[in-house]
Each structure stands twice: as C-alpha cells, then as structure tokens.
Amino acid sequence: MAVKRKVPLRKCVGCGEMKPKKEMLRILRTEEEGFLLDATGKKNGRGAYLCHAAECFQKAVKGRGLERSFKQAIPTEVYERLEKEMSAVDAR
Question: Residue 84 maps to which CATH number?
Fold first, then answer.
C-alpha cells in the first residue's frame, strides 16, 4: 500500500487562502538582515506567506497583514524593496 503524504498548507496574509507551502512566497524577518524574501523557505527567522500574485501583496499592504504577522510596524521602504524582489522572482 502506498503511503499518502500530508502536504503542508500555509495561509496567505493577503487573500487569506490556504495553499500548499511550495506554491507560496515566504517573507522573512531576521535579527541581522531585517525583512527579506526567502525563496527556499528554509532560512531561520519568523516567516509570513504570500501568494505569487501582485494583488495579494497589495492586499497585505493595505490590510496590514504583514504587520500583524510580524507584530511590528513595517517601513514603506521595506514594502517597496519586497515588491521589487517579488517582481524579479515572478519574472523567472
């Protein structure tokens, strides 16, 4: 009998939809580097997940989903840098 593995699900902080972890982008907060995009999903730090859609990122910014996840205010420069990184990842 084949063993059916459980697929880990994560909730998008923008749209609130549950999707498989591998289909989502992870935004990471670290002590040293601050906020960054974790393409591998394995770096150490507090993480929040977003869909690859730009609309979800805009909803997360407008609804302060990332701020709630990280329990702190996020400067606008960080949002701008994350948006550029997301568009670079989506272009691949």
Answer: 3.30.1230.10
**In a domain? residue 22:** yes
Specify if 4 maps to a domain.
no
How much is the average pLDDT of 65-82? Answer: 90
Work out how many domains the chain is built from and give that number.
1
Of 73, 41, 53, the C-alpha closest to 13 is 53
Query: What is the pLDDT at residue 91?
Result: 63
In angstroms, the CA 85 to CA 82 distance is: 5
Q: Report pLDDT digits (tens) over 2-12.
A: 888 999 999 99
